[in-house]
């Protein structure tokens, strides 16, 4: 019976055939152990000299790391293994001998591993991170489909910038200037006026010259927008969504979390509702924690976000930032014009902001004024202003950065491990 490692639980005490790669091996006298992987998972293959032909045992002893094989054997339960099963191998068919595989079981430096990212992905740790990433994506579609959202795909090439032009990649679009998208939000607002509740999931690009563990040049965003939705309702959607994906990972990626050594007790606490503090309260809290230099009107950096998050066991919303710190499209608080109806969601354990969201300006004249204040070309935003001229309604949305969320949930230190092929300030290879 041909199967995969992920499906061997169906064939206990039965013979199966699996296409695999050799992740590692060891042997001692009359028994050999092969650590096998097939993309769906990892399993130990046991070859006992007395139970197989001599050539099979010699192949097992001599096979090299990352060689590809077909193995045939009997599935047994194994309580000592986190996976719960092992394969007693009877036959080995070599597909391809791997020679001098560069990533050995010894320690390698980060730059070496990044240069070999196309191979590093095969490791057990990277496999676990990618499986968690996949589960977050799967759960994202499930959550929004269950809650009446329609998937819409905004363009990647745009003629204007939703948050200014300082962090954009520019290109020529025939005879015009164009930019790689830094957010699909403005287009999602148009989609929300047509379809009510929408979400996008796609790549975004920021030409920010940052080398921190939280930043990538190319990353993926989940961006919902909702018509007839005001500030508080927007926050409720966010906390329910984040709770949903965390619980989905706990349920469906238990083995991967064990592989990564993740403290799952911290994730088990991530259920809605989440705590909320205002920007004003956050400034006070930071002063209490010894950050005397930060003043009202300053933006928060990574140390500030970490210090604020340390006061909470769940993600925390920081709301009502100063208008001067935020983009032109955010709705001012009707009771206090110097702050906007926005929130950043800060993850625990030092992972920083994972969501930025707000209620959007829905008044035509106010939006025009905000565009002018930000010295943006009104002609380029003519279509965006027209969303307010033809049936404007209160509407809200947010953007969740996938890679930061994967880093937090999986417990890895740097976002470069959370995307298959990271684009960093000084890295475009492989």
From TrEMBL:
Signal sequence residues: none
Key word Transferase present: no
Single Gene Ontology BP annotation: asparaginyl-tRNA aminoacylation
GO molecular function, one term: transferase activity
Tagged with keyword ATP-binding: yes
Domain of life from the UniProt record: Bacteria
GO cellular component terms, A-Z: cytoplasm
EC number: 6.1.1.22
InterPro entries: Aa-tRNA-synt_II, aa-tRNA-synth_II, aa-tRNA-synth_II/BPL/LPL, Asn-tRNA-ligase, Asp/Asn-tRNA-synth_IIb, NA-bd_OB-fold, NA-bd_OB_tRNA
SUPFAM superfamilies assigned to the protein according to its UniProt record, in alphabetical order: Class II aaRS and biotin synthetases, Nucleic acid-binding proteins
Catalytic reaction equation(s): tRNA(Asn) + L-asparagine + ATP = L-asparaginyl-tRNA(Asn) + AMP + diphosphate + H(+)
Annotated Aminoacyl-transfer RNA synthetases class-II family profile domain residues: 130-430
Keywords recorded for this protein, A-Z: Aminoacyl-tRNA synthetase, ATP-binding, Cytoplasm, Ligase, Nucleotide-binding, Protein biosynthesis
PROSITE patterns in UniProt: AA_TRNA_LIGASE_II
Localization (cell): Cytoplasm
Subunit structure as annotated in this protein's UniProt entry: Homodimer.
Family: Belongs to the class-II aminoacyl-tRNA synthetase family.
Name used for this protein in its record: Asparagine--tRNA ligase
Organismal lineage: Bacteria, Bacillati, Bacillota, Bacilli, Bacillales
């Amino acid at each position: 019976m041909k199967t995969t490692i992920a499906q061997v639980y169906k064939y206990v005490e039965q013979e199966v055939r699996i296409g695999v790669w050799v992740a590692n091996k060891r042997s001692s006298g009359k028994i050999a152990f092969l650590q096998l992987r097939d993309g769906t998972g990892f399993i130990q293959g046991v070859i006992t000299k007395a139970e197989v032909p001599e050539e099979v045992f010699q192949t097992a002893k001599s096979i090299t790391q990352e060689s590809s094989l077909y193995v045939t054997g009997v599935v047994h339960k194994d309580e000592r293994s986190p996976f719960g099963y092992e394969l007693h191998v009877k036959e080995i068919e070599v597909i391809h001998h791997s020679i001098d595989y560069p990533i050995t079981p010894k320690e390698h430096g980060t730059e070496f591993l990044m240069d070999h990212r196309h191979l590093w992905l095969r490791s057990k740790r990277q496999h676990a991170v990618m499986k968690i990433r996949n589960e977050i994506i799967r759960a994202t579609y499930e959550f929004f489909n269950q809650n009446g959202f329609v998937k819409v795909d905004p363009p990647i090439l745009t003629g204007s910038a939703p948050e200014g032009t300082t962090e954009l990649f520019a290109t020529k679009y025939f005879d015009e200037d164009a930019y790689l998208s830094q957010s699909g939000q403005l287009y999602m607002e148009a989609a929300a006026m047509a379809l009510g509740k929408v979400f996008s999931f796609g790549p975004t690009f920021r030409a920010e010259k940052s080398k921190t563990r939280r930043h990538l040049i190319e990353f993926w965003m989940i961006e919902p927008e909702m018509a007839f939705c005001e500030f508080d309702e927007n926050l409720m959607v966010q906390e329910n969504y984040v709770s949903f994906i965390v619980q989905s990972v706990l349920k469906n990626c238990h083995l991967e979390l064990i592989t990564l050594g993740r403290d799952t007790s911290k994730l088990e606490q991530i259920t809605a509702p989440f705590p909320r503090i205002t920007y004003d309260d956050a400034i006070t809290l930071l002063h209490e924690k010894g950050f005397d230099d930060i003043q009202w009107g300053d933006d928060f950096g990574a140390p500030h976000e970490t210090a604020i998050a340390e006061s909470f066991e769940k993600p925390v919303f920081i709301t009502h930032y100063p208008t001067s710190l935020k983009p032109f499209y955010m709705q001012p608080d009707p009771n206090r014009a110097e702050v906007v109806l926005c929130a950043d969601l800060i993850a625990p354990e030092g992972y920083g902001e994972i969501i930025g969201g707000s209620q959007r300006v829905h008044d035509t004249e106010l939006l025009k004024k905000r565009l002018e204040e930000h010295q943006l070309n009104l002609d380029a935003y003519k279509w965006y202003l027209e969303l307010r001229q033809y049936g404007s309604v209160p509407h809200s949305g947010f953007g969740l950065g996938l890679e930061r969320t994967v880093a937090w949930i999986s417990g890895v230190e740097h976002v470069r491990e959370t995307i298959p092929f990271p684009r960093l300030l000084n890295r475009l290879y492989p």
